Amino acid sequence: MLSFCGIDVSKDRLDVMVLPAEQCCSVPNDAGGWAALVERLRNFSIAAIGIEASVGYERGAARALLAAGMSVRQVNPFKLRQFARASGVLAGALIWCGITEWSPLIPIWSP
After folding, report:
1. At CA 34, angle to CA 31 and CA 37, rounded to 5?
2. Where are the domains of the chain?
3. Does domain 2-102 have CATH number 3.30.420.10?
4. What is the pLDDT, as a whole number, of residue 108?
């Protein structure tokens, strides 16, 4: 079954959600955390990963995911908030995952 991943980005941490498996985790936003994230996501058939555009804090994670051959889609936070309001869901990794799955986003980065 194909899965979708959403990543909420902050300076120190990445909050990750995978649907439909409803698996979530947090990893440090550093090289060790990126490697751990890649290993966790290899357990799923990920169709796409939506990652927050976050003043550059997302770049290392995106590069690590791309190097692992995964498709990464950068999402504008403003569009995410609009999607969250329309869906009635608070923003976070879950909503990043939802917008990645249900919205026709163009991959910004792809393997």
Report:
1. 155
2. 2-102
3. yes
4. 52
